[in-house]
Batch of 2 targets.
Target 1
Amino acid sequence: MEYSFPRYLLAKQSVDDRALNQIVLNALRAQLSPEPLRIIEVGAGIGSMLRRLVRWDILHHADYTLVDDQPENIAFAQTWLPQWAAASGLTCERVGPHSAHLHDDAHDIRVHFVQADVFAFVNTNLIPADLLIAHAFLDLLRMPASLSPLLSLTKSLAWLTINFDGVTTLEPTIDPTLDARIEQLYHETMDTRPSGGDSRAGRHLFEHLRGAHAEIIAAGASDWVVHAINGRYPADEKYFLGFILHFFEESLADHAALDSAAFTKWLAERRAQIERGELVYIAHQMDFLVRKGAAGSVL
Ligand SMILES: C[S@@+](CC[C@H](N)C(=O)[O-])C[C@H]1O[C@@H](n2cnc3c(N)ncnc32)[C@H](O)[C@@H]1O
């Protein structure tokens, strides 16, 4: 299997579509100010959320800035945008090297691609947005220190989605003790990355958001649930599952606390479960819609 991060992000789209919490999403629809909107998305990857907001008829008139630090993701986003726009009947014009204009009778969206570390971007951004989006991103950062700089990117709303929250389930069981050990060690690697990260980011955000003077308007679970239907995984979710096992392999290969032969055998059996359409994967995550409070206010 060839591992491409942009393809993983493409394959993740249908999983995220099902997972996003609908109560939080409805709160977003209700709270958004009238368009045109200025939106900043951080850790935006290949631009999946922009496409989703257009597809879900939420976004029509906007200035949308995507920020990601990986050149590969930004390059893919720039190539992919005209493709999905054309497939949706939208006209896409390139405007200079880092922007595009997406339009039809119902849409007028200016898109800006920024390849930068998010905190460098925070230091240079002059105009806060109406909405900040961070999707499958906050659980990778140092918390709570990252929250206030990120919230400086919005005038009011932030939609903070797919924050991992401490449960990874792979079924069927191979060996209860080994399965549990691998889950525990995998979560530990999220907690000990030098760049930050928290395997219980979802639940901890309640406290961190309060500390950052952000009012929680809505919160709820956004679990990934991936399983085969009639022996086949939907869309490109077989690839998605293969990539999840790749994350396990990358994180835990040569781990001192894990018998490497047993782990290799475990990975092979999990891959065989995917081939047979047997593997069920569940990851517990949380979504939030928050409104930024006035600096120093108690909410
Ligand atoms: C799990 S991916 C999610 C991408 C996208 N939000 C999605 O769900 O399709 C996290 C993204 O954050 C980006 N990222 C990680 N650290 C970053 C940083 N410090 N500044 C900007 N982007 C960062 C990665 O390159 C990656 O694309």
Target 2
Amino acid sequence: MKDTHQAQPFIQVNDLHHVYLRGTPLEVTALKGVTLEIYEGESIGIIGRTGAGKSTIVQHFNGLLRARQPGKVILEGQDMSDPSVKVKAIRQKVGLVFQHPEQQLFERLVGDDIAFGPKRLGLSREERRERVRWAMEMVGLDFERFKDRFTFSLSGGEMRKAAIAGVLALQPKVLILDESTTGVDPRGRKDLLARILELHRHHGMTLIFVSPNMEEVASMVDRVYVIDDGRTAMSGTTREIFDRPDDLRQYGLGVPQVTTIAHQLREHSLPITRTPLTVAEAAEDVWKILNS
Ligand SMILES: Nc1ncnc2c1ncn2[C@@H]1O[C@H](COP(=O)(O)OP(=O)(O)OP(=O)(O)O)[C@@H](O)[C@H]1O
Ligand SMILES: [Mg+2]
């Protein structure tokens, strides 16, 4: 659960702007004023229609993009626009799984690719092997079966899993998943997300989750930021956000199906007091109504 009593957010973003290809005919203003804060141990969703600026935002969190334009990104109290900030140290703490996994895999063999981060951490051969084995198990890639496979021969879903394993192998404090489970089959996805949620809930890993799937967002995160046209458009707890379907619609977004059903039942005067976010919550509520 979030602890907003902590003195300082782990990541603080103030009025962040970002322009791609500035001064060229292809110039795009991707961010026009994003403000948000993320505390250690939180799980945060970032949602918004395609092109809203979500990937551009999260690439500022591990120093891939630097806030040199108006606005600030402060990470653990360090101003990321300061050139003396060591990006290598940041990347160890903040693991970003890219939207396109093929941008992340570059070693020939899957095992070597996942071992790349631990190697740079200076871990021994034995420790590296254990990390790789652990990370592959976390994402549901069998160690013996996949470690010597060529990365380019993996299917789309397997590539995603390998990319996530490579980031998990660093055991980062903050894990950012940018639409990282797209293409993984539903069962594999469910297992993978359950293990990630476990790392968040029981091992304190901060989770930043970007996804077009509202059901997944609802089940994974405690708080949500809605981004629209490069700006922070809405923020609140997951329940507060999904309790405003009309506002979300305006930003091209929906709510989980089960939430829609609950809203409709409420319009028909059924005494649904809280907005259910998951099927399990809805079942609980319906059960209470049937028993009352
Ligand atoms: N490397 C780049 N060069 C030029 N323009 C870019 C680049 N990356 C993103 N953009 C543009 O910046 C805007 C924001 O893109 P971004 O990828 O951050 O959006 P997004 O919310 O992640 O979208 P999606 O949901 O489709 O992943 C878009 O208009 C996009 O075309
Ligand atoms: Mg994106």
